[in-house]
From TrEMBL:
One of its GO terms (cellular component) is Cul8-RING ubiquitin ligase complex. Transmembrane segments: none annotated. It comes from Ophiobolus disseminans. Residues 502-514, 533-558, 568-594 have a biased composition (Basic and acidic residues). Residues 595-607 have a biased composition (Acidic residues). Residues 9-107, 107-198, 349-432 form the BRCT domain. This is BRCT domain-containing protein. GO terms for biological process: DNA double-strand break attachment to nuclear envelope; double-strand break repair. Residues 469-617 are annotated as: Disordered.
Length: 865
C-alpha cells in the first residue's frame, strides 16, 4: 500500500491530464501560480493565445480552468465532455492531494450555489439533510464541521454551540436561518442573506413588515445590456497598445463581421463601425459565407438561419457595441438584450398589457425593453385593463391595487424565462408568484440566459427545411398552402387557434389528422398542386402538436381564463366555520377607476382612461384615507357584481377594502367575532366600527366619522371580562410585539386549522411551530424578565419559563402531550397544554393573562370537562 501511494505521489496528481487556463478575470500573479501548481503535479499546459481568442487543440484538453463560462469555446467544451472548473478547484485538489469533484467548482451560472460552503448547526435532521442535498445539487459544498472555508452557518439562533464558536473565533462567515436556503431554492437564484442573518433577522420582525424594502443595486448582468437598440455610439477602448492587457480575449482579431440590412443605421454610422472593427483586427464583409460574426436585429431571414446553423456568433447591435467598447468577447446569449429579438414576439404575449413596479434606473429600462421584445404592450402606468404586473416585491400600492382588480402579480423570472425558452411559461409556476420576505428580487435581475436549444428549435433547426418546403407550396391564387407559421409547428409553444378536423382527402399517412389552423386559414388548401410529400410531412408535425394545443384551448375556456383562474377562499373561521359558496373573493373585484397612484420614481403621473362602458366622467382616485378590513358582513356574499360596484364607490371616497390584516385602520364587523382576520387585525390597534359605517357611506356617498359608528361590544366585553377600547390602547403600546420572543407550539389538526393560529401569533410578534410529537430541536428558550418590556408589551403575568402547546381536548392527542412535556422539561421549562381559547383571549385583549380553565389535562378530558 505504501509503495502504491509513493508511486502515485511521484507521478503527480495531474499526470496524464492537460489544462488550458482562460486568462480573463485573473491577474498575472494568479496565472503564474496556477501554471506552477499544475506543472509541479506533472500536468500538461496547452497555452491559450489571446490574439486568437479560441482554444487550440480543444479535443486534447481534459480540464479548462476559467473564472467564468463566458468564453467562446465553453459550449463546445461541454459537448466534448471536457471539464470546466474554477481556479479554486486546483488549490482545493492539491490541499487533499486528490482531484475534487469538478461539478462543485463549475462556473456554470445555473449552479447558483457554486461559491457556497455550508455548515449546519443544531437544526432538525430532516431539514439538515434537505439543505445539504440541495446545496450540493446547486453546485455548493458542505462541511461537517466549522472551518475557515465555511461561508454560511445555518442555525436557528445564536445560542447554538457552533454559532458561539464562530463568534469567538471571529470566522468570516454568515450565520443565517434555514429559510434563506428555502427561499433561494424557491426562486432558483441566490438571493441576499441580509433579511435572514442572525441575531436579528428581518423576516421574523413583524413590526417592519410594511417598512420600505431597500432598493436593489443595479445587477452587473444587465449593465450595458438594457436595450437591443443602443442609444449612444460605441467608444473605442482608451488603453494604448502597450498598456492593453495581454490576457484579454480579442473580440475581432482575425474575424470577419457581416452587418445585416435590418440594422437601422445610416451609411455614415456603418462606416464608423467598420473602422472600429478593423481597428480591433477584424474586417467587415458583404457575404454571409465569409462571415465569422453576424449582427442583425431580428431572428429572421436566410442569413440569420444559415450563420446560426453553422455555429457562428450571432448578436445584435447592442452586443456589437459592447465588444467594440470592451474589446473582450462575450457570449451574445448570456444577456437577453444582446441577442436578436423575435420579429413577432413570443407566441401568446401579443394579447397582454404588462406594467412593472418597484424597479428603477437601468433595471426598469431593461424590463421595459424585455416586455416589448416579447410582443406584449408595456404601460408606464398601471391600469384596470392591465393583464400582468411584474414586481420586485409586494410592498407597493400597485400590488394592492392588482389584488383588488384581479390582475396577475408575478416576479420578473416569469418574463425572463418565457423569453429565454421562446414560449409562454405557465403563470401557475410557484417560483413566478413567490416573493421572499424583505427581499428585493431586482438584485437577481438578468441572471437568466437564453435557452440555446429552445432558440435553435424555434428559429433555425435544420429539421425545419421540410416545413419551409411545405410553406412554399402555393395555391393557384398565390395563397400559401398552410397558414400556420413554421415557428409554431416546430415548437411546443401553445398555438392561438383551435385544432379543427381536416375534411379534405389525404394520403394514408395523414388520414383524419386534426390540424391546428391559424385564424386566416383557407378551406381549399389541399387542392393546391405541387409537392404533396413535403406538405404531408409538415401536416404530420402539426398533428404532433395538436394534443398540447387542445389542452391549452381547454385551459383558456375555463372561467376567468388562464391568468384569472381559481377561486379565493372566503374568510377563514376559527369558530363556526360554515361552508362558503364558490364566489370570488371580494378583493378580486374590478374597480370602475382605471388607474392607480404611481409608486416608482421614473413613472409618469397617472392619467384617466375611460372604461369599456365609455363613461364620459373620468374622476381621479382619491388618496387612501382608511384601510378597512371587513369580517362577517354578508352584504357581498354570492354577489360579485354588487361587491365590485360598491367597493369601487368606497375606493373613490378614499376607503380601501383590504384583506391584509397586517395593515388596517378600520376593522368592521356586526359584532366582535373570532375569525382569523378579525383577531389578527386587532394587533394593528384599528378603530372598531359597526357595519352601519358602510351603510351610511354607500347611502350618502361620503365617509362618516368613525366615532359615530363605533362597534357595540358590550355583550362580548361582559362575557370575556375586558373592554375592547382598552385592548386597542394596549395594542398601540404593543406595536405588534405582544408575543415577541415567544415560541408557541400548536398541533397540526387543531380546530380552526394550524395556519389560523400561526398567523394570529405572528401578527403579534411571536413564532408558531407545528407539533407532531416528534423529537426536534427546540427553538424556544426562557424569556427574560424585563420591567420595561413587561410594561410596553403587557406581559406582567408572563412567567417566562412556560412553554405552551395549543391543542384540542381530544384523547388522540394524549401521546403528543406526553412527548411535549418531555421536551419542555428537557430544556428546563414548564409545559402547559392549552385550549384555543387561551390564544384567542390573549390576542383579543392584547395582554398576557391566564385562567386555569384554559389548561388541558388528560383527567379532565376523560371526564368530559
Amino acid at each position: 500500500m505504501e509503495d502504491s501511494t509513493m508511486m502515485e505521489a511521484s507521478q503527480g496528481l495531474f499526470e496524464e491530464h492537460s489544462f488550458t487556463i482562460i486568462p480573463n478575470g485573473l491577474s498575472e500573479d494568479s496565472l503564474d501560480k496556477l501554471r506552477e501548481q499544475i506543472a509541479a503535479e506533472h500536468g500538461t499546459i496547452i497555452p491559450f493565445d489571446p490574439s486568437i481568442g479560441r482554444i487550440d487543440r480543444l479535443e486534447e484538453i481534459t480540464y479548462i480552468v476559467s473564472e467564468t463560462s463566458d468564453f467562446p469555446d465553453y459550449y463546445r467544451a461541454l459537448d466534448l465532455m471536457i471539464h470546466v472548473v474554477k481556479p479554486t478547484w486546483v488549490t482545493a485538489s492539491l490541499s487533499i492531494h486528490k482531484m475534487k469533484n469538478p461539478r462543485t467548482y463549475s462556473p456554470d451560472p445555473a449552479l447558483f450555489m457554486s461559491d457556497v460552503v455550508i455548515c449546519c448547526g443544531d437544526i432538525p435532521t430532516g431539514d439538515k439533510e434537505a439543505i445539504e442535498g440541495g446545496v450540493v445539487a446547486m453546485g455548493g459544498q458542505i462541511a461537517p464541521s466549522l472551518s475557515k472555508q465555511v461561508t454560511h452557518l445555518i442555525a436557528l439562533d445564536l445560542i447554538d454551540e457552533r454559532c458561539q464558536l464562530a463568534i469567538s473565533k471571529r470566522l468570516q462567515l454568515m450565520i443565517v436561518l434555514p429559510h434563506w436556503f428555502d427561499d433561494c431554492l424557491k426562486v432558483g437564484r441566490r438571493i441576499s442573506e441580509r433579511p435572514y442573518t442572525l441575531p436579528d433577522p428581518e423576516i421574523l420582525n413583524l413590526v417592519n413588515t410594511k417598512a420600505p424594502i431597500p432598493a436593489a443595486r443595479t445587477s452587473q448582468q444587465i449593465r450595458e445590456a438594457t436595450s437591443p437598440d443602443p442609444i449612444n455610439d460605441p467608444v473605442l477602448p482608451t488603453l494604448s497598445a502597450h498598456l492593453e492587457p495581454p490576457r484579454a480575449i480579442k473580440a475581432f482579431a482575425g474575424k470577419n463581421v457581416k452587418l445585416s440590412e435590418d440594422l437601422s443605421m445610416s451609411n455614415k454610422l456603418r462606416g464608423i463601425i467598420a473602422g472600429m472593427i478593423k481597428a480591433g483586427g477584424g474586417d467587415v464583409v458583404a457575404k454571409t459565407d465569409l462571415a465569422d460574426i453576424f449582427v442583425c436585429t431580428y431572428r429572421y431571414g436566410d442569413d440569420y438561419i444559415k450563420t446560426s446553423q453553422d455555429g457562428k456568433d450571432v448578436g445584435n447591435l447592442s452586443w456589437l457595441y459592447y465588444l467594440i467598447t470592451h474589446n473582450v468577447w462575450t457570449n451574445p446569449m448570456r444577456r437577453m438584450m444582446h441577442y436578436p429579438r423575435p420579429k413577432n414576439g413570443i407566441p401568446g404575449f401579443e394579447e397582454y398589457k404588462i406594467s412593472i413596479s418597484s424597479y428603477t434606473g437601468e433595471a426598469r429600462v431593461y424590463l421595459e425593453n424585455l416586455v416589448k421584445a416579447t410582443g406584449a404592450e408595456f404601460t408606464k402606468t398601471f391600469k384596470q385593463d392591465n393583464t400582468h404586473l411584474i414586481t420586485a416585491h409586494k410592498n407597493s400600492e400597485k400590488c394592492e391595487a392588482a389584488t383588488e382588480w384581479g390582475v396577475m402579480v408575478l416576479n420578473h423570472l416569469w418574463l425572463e424565462e418565457s423569453y429565454a425558452k421562446c414560449k409562454m411559461m405557465p403563470t401557475t409556476g410557484a417560483r413566478y408568484t413567490y416573493f421572499p420576505p424583505r427581499t428585493n428580487l431586482g438584485e437577481v435581475l438578468g441572471h437568466t440566459e437564453l435557452d440555446r436549444d429552445a432558440v435553435e428549435k424555434m428559429y433555425f433547426s435544420k429539421a425545419r427545411k421540410a416545413i419551409k418546403a411545405a410553406k412554399a407550396t402555393t395555391q393557384p391564387n398565390g395563397v400559401p398552402a398552410s397558414s400556420v407559421p413554421a415557428s409554431r409547428i416546430n415548437s411546443d409553444a401553445p398555438a392561438r387557434s383551435s385544432p379543427v378536423a381536416d375534411k379534405a382527402k389525404r394520403t394514408k399517412a395523414v388520414d383524419d389528422v386534426k390540424t391546428p389552423l391559424a385564424s386566416r386559414s383557407f378551406n381549399k388548401e389541399n387542392q393546391t398542386p405541387g409537392s404533396r410529400g413535403a406538405k404531408d410531412r409538415a401536416l404530420v408535425k402539426m398533428h404532433d402538436a395538436a394534443p398540447d394545443i387542445a389542452k391549452f384551448e381547454k385551459e383558456m375556456k375555463r372561467k376567468g381564463g388562464v391568468i384569472h383562474g381559481g377561486r379565493r377562499r372566503a374568510d377563514d373561521e376559527v369558530e363556526d366555520q360554515p361552508k362558503q359558496s364558490k364566489s370570488r373573493d371580494s378583493t378580486a373585484s374590478k374597480r370602475s377607476i382605471d388607474e392607480v397612484e404611481d409608486d416608482d420614481e421614473t413613472e409618469e403621473d397617472v392619467t384617466d382612461v375611460p372604461s369599456k362602458s365609455k363613461r364620459a366622467k373620468k374622476d381621479k382616485l382619491a388618496p387612501i384615507k382608511f384601510r378597512m378590513l371587513v369580517s362577517k358582513d354578508e352584504r357581498w356574499t354570492n354577489n360579485d357584481e354588487k361587491a365590485s360596484k360598491e367597493k369601487a364607490r368606497l375606493r373613490e371616497m378614499g376607503l380601501f377594502i383590504t384583506d391584509d390584516f397586517k395593515k388596517v385602520d378600520l376593522l368592521c364587523a356586526p359584532k366582535p367575532v373570532r375569525t382569523k382576520k378579525f383577531v389578527a387585525a386587532l394587533a394593528c390597534a384599528p378603530t372598531l366600527v359597526s357595519t352601519t359605517y358602510l351603510d351610511y357611506a354607500l347611502k350618502n356617498n361620503k365617509l362618516p366619522l368613525p366615532e359615530k359608528h363605533f362597534l357595540d361590544a358590550k355583550d362580548f366585553e361582559d362575557a370575556n371580562g375586558f373592554r375592547m377600547d382598552e385592548a386597542m390602547d394596549r395594542a398601540k403600546q404593543n406595536k405588534h410585539r405582544l408575543l415577541k420572543d415567544w415560541t408557541i407550539f400548536c398541533t397540526q389538526n387543531v380546530a380552526g386549522g394550524f395556519d389560523t393560529y400561526k398567523e394570529i401569533i405572528e401578527a403579534n410578534g411571536g413564532k408558531c411551530a407545528m407539533w407532531k410529537g416528534r423529537t426536534t430541536s427546540i427553538t424556544a428558550s426562557k424569556r427574560s424578565k424585563n420591567l420595561a418590556t413587561e410594561e410596553s408589551q403587557n406581559q406582567k403575568e408572563d412567567e417566562g419559563d412556560v412553554l405552551y402547546l395549543i391543542s384540542d381536548p381530544d384523547k388522540k392527542d394524549f401521546a403528543n402531550w406526553v412527548k411535549f412535556r418531555e421536551l419542555a422539561k428537557k430544556h428546563d421549562m414548564i409545559p402547559r397544554i392549552v385550549k384555543t381559547e387561551w390564544i384567542l383571549s390573549v390576542a383579543m385583549s392584547q395582554y398576557v393573562h391566564w385562567k386555569d380553565d384554559w389548561e388541558l389535562i388528560e383527567e379532565g378530558v376523560k371526564a368530559g370537562k
